[in-house]
Structures are given as C-alpha cells and as structure tokens.
Amino acid sequence: MSEAQTLERPVEAKAKYNLIDCDIHPSMKTPAEIHPYLSQRWRDHLATYGGHTRQGLSETLSHPRMVPEVSRVDSWPPAGGPPGSDLPFLREQHLDGLGIDLGVLVPLRFNASGQRHPDLAVALAVAINDWQIGKFLEPEPRLRGSIIATQEDPASAVAEINRRASDKRFLQILLPPRSIEPLGKRRHWPIFEAAVSHNLPISMHVGGVGGHQATGAGWPSYYIEEHHSQVQTMEAVIASLIFEGVFEQFPQLKLSFVEGGFSWVPAYGWRMDKAWAAMRDEVPHVKRPPSEYLRENIWFTTQPMEEPNPAKNLTDTLRWIGTDRLMFSTDYPHWDFDDPRYAFKVPLTADEKAAIFAGNAVNFYGLN
Amino acid sequence: MNEMIRSLDSKPALSTVGAIDCDLHPASPATAALMPYLDEYWRETFIMRGVDRMSLAMTASPPRSPINVRSDWKAKSGFAGDTLEAVRAQALDPFGTRLAICNVLNGAMIMHSDDMAAALCGAVNEWLAREWLDKEPRLRGSIIVSAQNADLAVAEIEKRVADNRFVQILILAQNDEPLGRRRYWPIYEAAARNRLPVCIHAGGSNRHAPTATGWPSFFVEAYVAQGSIFESQLLSLVAEGVFHKVPDLKVVCAESGFTWLPSFFWRADKTWRGVRAETPWVTEQPSDIVKRHVRFTLQPVEAPLETDALTRTLEHVDCDDILLFSTDYPHAQFEGLNALPAALGETLARKIMIGNPLATYPRIAADFAKEVAK
Amino acid sequence: MNQAVLEKDTNLEKDGGAETKLSIVDCDIHPAFSSQAELAKFLPQRWKQHLADYGPRSANPLVGTLPYPRMTPGNGMRRDAWPPNGGPPASDLAYLQEQLLDLLDIEYGILQPLAAGSSTLNQDLGVAMCAAVNDWQIDKWMDPEPRLKGSISVTQEDVPAALTEIEARINDKRFVQIAIPPRTIEPAGRRRYWPIYEAAEHYDMPIGMHSAAYGQHTNSGAGWLSFYIEEHYAFSHSLQSVLTSMIFEGVFERFPKLKLVVVEGGFAWAAPLAWRLDKQWERMRSEVPQVKRPPSEYLKENVWFTTQPIEEPENNRHLLDTLRWVGTDRLMFSTDYPHWDFDDPRYAFKVPLSPTERAQIFRDNARAVYRLP
How far does C46 lie from chain B, in Å, by closest CA? Predict the structure, then answer.
C-alpha cells in the first residue's frame, strides 16, 4: 500500500495526544530578546539600519489590526510583556488551561524570510530558531518549533534545514506564502527536496511580505480586505505548487496552510480541475487532476473556523475536504482565537473529532 | 580632505549666516504624541487597535541609519532632532539660520486607508504648529498630505492655509502613480491657488518596487535609486502638462540631489524633439519648463568636491535660480558646518541661501518685507 | 543621404588628422524576423504547438505589440529602413548590408536580438525560445555575414538552464557576449544570478544588458508611466539600477574580471551616478561590507556603455566634460539600427574628438571588450 493511500484512512488519535494545537504565536518581551542569538555585527546593523522589507512601513504591518498586538485582551501576561512572550503565563492560560498535549510554535516576528538584505535574512532565521529552543523548547516539552527557512535564498534555507533536522523538537519548516516568485517555481525546489529527505512537512502561515500588492486587484485600503486577501494568496500558492508539478516531483511532500480557513478549498479544487481539463497540454508534467494533489499532499488548520449560516452547511464542506485533512489550531494569542471547546458548531463523530483534534496532526508531523 | 580640515577649524568655507534653510527635519513624532491632535473617533479607534503604540517609521527612511542621523547630532535615543533644544543648538544657532522649513517625514502619508492617512497627516500638521512653530519663531512648516486621495489632501490644504507659517505642501517622491497623472491635479491646483509650492521629498510608500528591476537589497542601494524616481517624476509633471494646466505651480524637489540635472535635460530635450507629437501640450523643451517651475534643495551635493565637477555641472545646468539652500538636518550630508561647498563662490552662495528661497516662497518673502518695513 | 551632403558637413572633427574612413564596430543592431513563423522553424514541434496555442506569455499585457506605442510604424523604426523586398526593418540581410554595414563602413556589428525567451513566464518555453533565437542568429545572420557577431540569449531566471545554453554555445566564437535583459525579477546583482556571472567571467565573455521594454515590475520607481517620452527615458534608469545593484551586492568584488556592457541607455548619467554612489557609500558602507572600494572604481574597471542614444547638450562643448568624467575608454559606439533614434556615426558626436578618442570609441574599445579578431 502506498503511503498516499495510508494517509486517507482516518486515524485514531493515540492516547498520548488528545489535543494538538498547530498554531501558537510566541513573542519577545522586547526586540532586544533576540540579541543573545545574534552576532555583534547584526545587533549593530539592526540598531542602525533596522529591518528592511519590501513594503512601506518599516516596523509595522501595512494594515493596522483591530487590537494591539492582534491579541486577545485577556492574553497580556500579568508579569508584563506582550501576549505570547511569557512562558509561565502561556502554560497556565493556554497549555494547562485547555489541556493541550502538543503545541506548535509559529514565530512571525522580525520577518526573517522577508528581509531584503540577504545576510541579515539568514542571521535572523538562525537566531529565531535558536531563540525558540532557548526560550520555549528547552523548558517546555509540550512545545515544538518551526524551522524558519529563507525561501529567497534556497541554498541558505537548505543549510539551515539540514542543521536543524536532527533536532526532533522542530516539527516543520515554515515558509511564508508571500514571496518574490510563486513558491512552486523551480528555484525553490531544493527546499522541498530537503524537506522530503528529512521527512519534515512544510507549513505556510498567512502573511509574509513578498513585495507584491496584497491582491491581484491592487492594494486594499482596509484591514477587512487585507485579512481576506490571505485566502487568495494561499489559493495562488496552491495553484503554483500544483501546476509547476511540485507534487509530481516530490510525491511525499506534505504541506499545511495555517490560519487561512478552509471553506474555499473544495471550490478551488473544482476550478483547477476544470481549467486543467481544458488546458492540460500546457502543463504536461501535471499528470493528474489538481484536486487529487490537494487531497493527498495538503492539509489545513481549522482556525479561523468558518461559520456558515445555517451552520449545517459546514458539514458539506467537511465532507468535500475530508475530515482527515484538517488539523486543529487556536492561533493563540490572537483575537480570532478558536477555543477547542466551542469551535465546531456542527456535529462530528468521535472518530472525526479525534482525527481533527490530534490524529491528523500525528500523521502530518510523523509523530507515530 | 579640505572639507574635513575646515570642519575641524569649525569655520566653514562659506558662511551660512542669514540663510533660509529649505529642508530641516524635526524627528518624526511617535504616534502617541499625535493623539491629542486627533478627533474623538480616531483617538478611540487608535487606542482600541493599538495604533497609538505603533511606529509609523518608513522603510524608505530608516530613522537611525547613518545617512538619517549624523553621528555628532545623535541623541541618546539614537534619533536626532527630537527636541526643540537640539534643533536650536544643532541646526539653527551654529549656522546662523534665519528661517528653516520643517519637513516632517511620517508614515501618516502612506497608510492605505484614505481617511486614516488624512487624519494622521492632519494630526502631524497640528502637532508641528503647536509644538514647534508656536515655540520657535525661526521655524516654518510644510503641510504634509497623503497624495493618494486628492480631495482629502485639498481639504487639509484649505484648512491649514490660514496659518501663514505653513509655506508649502509636502508629498513623498514615490506614490501609487507618477505624480503628473491627472488624479493628483487637484492638489496642484489648490497649491497654486494658495501660492504655495509643492515640495516633493525623497521617500515613498513602496506600493511597488522602487525600481523597474525589483526591490534593491540594501538601503544604500535604495537611497541611490531615489534620484531616478525624481527624474521620472519631473518628466511626468512635464509630459502630462501639469505646468501647462497650472502655470503658477512651483515645485521643490527636496533631498533629491541635483547633479543629475544636466544629463536629464540633455536626454529629455532630445527625446522630446523626436516624440513630442504624443504630448502636443508640451510646447517647450522640458529643460526650459523645469528651469522655470522647479527648484532643488542643495543637499545632498553629489559631486567629488575636490575636483571641478560641481563647477562644471552648475555651468551645464545654466540656471542660477534653481538651487535652494538646505542643511537637511539631521541627515549626514556634509561635515561640520560646511553646508555650502566652496566651489559655489560667495555670490552664488548668497543667492542660494536667500535670493532663491525668497523668490520661491511668497510667504517667506512677505515676512521679510514686513521686517524690512518695521 | 547623398555623398555631397556627407562631404559638406564640416561640423565634425576640428582636428585635421581625423580618419574619415575609420572602420567602426556597431555595438547595437536589432535583427528582425521576416514573419512570426520564422522563429518557429527553430523550435521543436512541442514548443511550436505550445506557442501557437498559448503564445509567449510574458509580463507584457499586450500580445502582439508594446503598450507604449512608438512614434513610427513597426514599433519605432526608421521610416527609410523598410526593405524594398518586403518584411519589417532589419529582417532582410541584403538591405541591412547595404543600408548599414556597407554604407557606414561597419567592420563588425553586434546583434542584440532582445530574445523573448528571457522574459517568458513559462520557464521551459523560455529555454526553448532562447535556444531557437541563438540558432536563428547563426543561420540567418552569422553564417552568411561574417561581420555580424551574436549574443547568447539565456533565461536568466532559470539559472541552470542558462548555464546549459552558455556551455552549448561557448565554442562558437562568433558569439561575443551573453545577453540578459536589465528588467529582471530581482535586481541584477542578487546572488541568484551569480552563477551566470561566474560563467561569463570564466569564459571572458561580457554580459550585455540591453534596455528592455517590459519586465515584471513597473517601468519606473515612480510607477507606471503614461507616455512614450517617459518610458523611453526610463530605460536609462533600469540600467542605473542594474549598476547600483551589482556594485552594492559585491558582484565586481566576487568577479573582478567580469565585463558588463550596458546598451542603449545613453551614458551622460554615468558621471553623476558615480558621484552619487561614492557619496552614499562613504556614509553607509557599514551596511555593505562586501563593497571594499568606492563604487566609481568598479564603474571605471568593469563597465562599458554603448553610446546611443547619445545625449545632446544645448552647448555641445559640455559633452567634453562628460567624456572626461566617464572616460572615453568606457564608451563603445552603437547605432541601434533600425530604430527611429538611430545614431549615425558620421553625425552623432557633435564635439571634436582626438584621433585616439575617435578610434577608441568607434572601434578599439569594442574590439578589446568583445575580443574581436
């Protein structure tokens, strides 16, 4: 039986893991927290030149969010510092509070992958990976890390992946969906090759500053638009990966899309299939209908949970996507956090729940 | 080398006493400092959203880079020009400056939401008036606006114009579209109507890459690229017929450099001769239009000062009216007090320091006339 | 243009010893296809079919033409360059020989094919089209006419494929440079392109960057320009960006023998650009420690400029300052035949040149850079 077929069966969560959270955002008390992990040269560089990304504001997201630090009001640690910067409070409020067996860190600070200075990008990526270990992974066995990889510099990204691969506390490679070129393009393939060779999945969390307008229609004015635009970005990345033939070249590659929701996925699969049926001779290397790659190589985290009206329409979506493709996430400490106790407003069987809350992640991360 | 020795003597080659400094930068205010100058809706929403705690520093001008902060002007904060005391002690008194125009570079101008940008720009202008212009009679201001919404920009201009200490409009060099395009014309019309020049200052929104070849890796590279953006903007203003449509409009290019002007004139004029049929309203060669309507602040002087490059370049430009004195404080464009290169000579230096700014800024000229009359 | 007119023009050299019969090297000639089908002859069937179905697909929003119409038919050609036997300007070898090579005493002409393959979004199509255009240069131009030299067109965004194409052509000495467009996905100095520069330096082949009509970014840092006058001007900016990027990324430190030719951007701007680069580097060299010398030094050692479109100061003599600042050793004459803004070697320079300068600019610099026989 091929590995692809194995993945299709819903897997019962092992007793070891009942609740896996695939998206926790750690932060620093102050930007200086990264300093011990940077050489003097880069500390000086950051102090004078700062970060240098492909957008207008140097220290702030292009579209201000609705709440400070994009976070839940109650997630500010009593001991001080921004949400997600205090491990004891994170344990208390989140890991202990919700009974989380395993939480995956997705660090978004400093935007290493988006830095224009090629050497700064690498220095920051390495530093953030070291910081994850020092601040979270060492002291807290329930937490796991993501290897920051600089997609614009594939050789350096591969070097960093190779360096971290034997540290099993890193569960995945993190790439931003927004990059200079669509991520399916061949120059990124060494990263996919490295991922597959180490049995590491790749995760793409919404965001990134790729140096292009946030939508194909141009720059949106308001946060509501920009927030939504992440969906279109993910769609574009999926199309690129599929139509460039990444999953033909790397059939073992596993990819997750985080914090983009998932209700758009089935219709997008149908759209790709129809276009491929008419124009498959443009892309002869794409040997199967696109939706099959969606079904086999790609997973989605559940947050932000969709809320159709009537709620039962979600059942169709879950059926079309496959309950084996969804992995629970909270997005702690962000404001649109999903509480595992309340997130699903449709009935799920016990098997489905077990799969979504832990079993699928166990498969995805190779924890079995 | 000679410049360095003179700066050690602390006596500049050419005196700047009595100058009108056309490009001075008080440090950009922290967003929290703007809160008193916003209306209730914006105050409330900014607090709720944490915008009051956000930095609006711009990628196009990293606030602590060596170009943006001259090392001997750096405060403990790492910034410069962040207090009135510092500006007096570093930018005004030592140069003997008579008047200085404050150009505040703040990310207010580049927020995507039109209303948010307009509200923040208004707050910056109010902050400048209350905390700088009210307190130091040698200072004048530029009305900053977000060019992306011409109606809101014009509203801010019309509101601010009654305060005579505001002497020009300020927009950034890089926007959504080239500045000659028609969507921006109401701004120029409002400026000309009120006899205020429009200052295009280096920097930008980064809504697209700042070069046709993508995103420069380094700030030094991107900074150099800004010169090209100014050339594109000048040619846009000319080609679209802005000066034809708004004949009273004056434009000041600030922190653009100017030694590229001759090659710009030669190329633009030559091409115009070949392709002018597409833009029939451009009835004179571009260089003549620019010489009549556009002025350039002095800093940065990009020429090897130990050679004859500057002298020859000025001869190529052939327009003594075109330069306006500036220190570009606190940017690091020269050593010590040597804001005026010796090659200018005293006569031209005086014209650059006083005569040209007076001819460009009617409000400043009116101030001077009043003083003389007293 | 009749002989009498030629001989009457005394505006040129004031110095008596000028060679009136100087054989020249023309560093910018644009050969054209006689028809759309002409390139297809050099493509494998698969790509012939693909092109017919899907077209070349580049960032150009219009398929058959440029979004900035030129002022003359044929996308901006000299009105007198249309061959009497038909076809577009520069598509007919015999007419090109007559009107350009023979008439103007051109000893060598460098073909700049402006290969569409370098800009197609479909990487594999781009590879096929570059190979085809290289074959076409040989077949239509270089085989029958030894005065014409070719440019190896490559897909710079697909570096392994570009290297393969370079290796495939390098032994044909009639190819004298590697052609890359300046308007690339990332600035030209970025490390992703370094293997190409490494190959160029290794083979002592110059990289020729000819201004490009479109790329994947806006055509200026200010945004999309409205008129052709602006778009034409902006060609010089993309070449300036290339130089700035290559210098600050440290390309010339890493590849000190690399030769770069910037084509069809003019050159007067090179002097103030050098001053600008030096001044900012002095201030901000801590950001770019890989740049070990003042930027202007690299400009003086690794970079050449073709002369067209030559700038025309109102006071001719100002050009003498420019020539002194840029260095007559860095300039290589070009006509840009058959474009409307063609520079005629007999009239292009409106200032006196010494015999040495004339020989340098019109012939000797190019012979050295391109290692012409």
Answer: 32
C-alpha to C-alpha distances, A120 to A168, B310, C127, nearest whole angstrom:
26, 37, 33
- Cα–Cα distance between B357 and C125 in angstroms, integer? 58
Q: Which fold has domain A20-365?
A: TIM Barrel (3.20.20)
Closest CA to B92 of B59, B53, B58, B132: B132
Confidence of residue C72 (pLDDT cuts 50, 70, 90): confident
* Token output for A55: 């957008």
Q: Do A68 and B50 touch (CB under 8 A)?
A: yes
A178, A209 Cβ separation under 8 angstroms: yes
CA pair distance C311, C316, nearest whole angstrom: 10
Q: Where are the domains of chain A?
A: 20-365
Exposure class string for C228-240: b at 16+ Cβ within 10 A, else e: bbbbbbbbbbbbb
Q: Does C159 touch chain A (CB under 8 A)?
A: yes
Residues of B in Cβ contact (< 8 Å) with C269: 260, 263-264, 267
Query: Is the Cβ pair A45, C287 closer than 8 Å?
Result: yes
Rounded mean pLDDT, A36-43: 98
Mean model confidence pLDDT for chain C: 92
| Tens digit of each residue's pLDDT (9 = 90 or more) over C330-373 | 999 999 999 999 999 999 988 999 999 999 999 999 999 999 99
Nearest to B260, CA basis, from C306, C240, C281: C240
Answer whether B215 sits within 8 Å of C186, measured CB to CB.
Answer: yes
- Residues of chain A found within 8 Å of residue B60, distances taken between Cβ atoms: 56
> Hey, which CATH number is domain B2-373, 3.60.21.10, 3.40.50.1970, 3.20.20.140, 2.30.110.20?
3.20.20.140
Answer whether A52 touches B (CB < 8 Å): yes
pTM, full prediction:
0.89
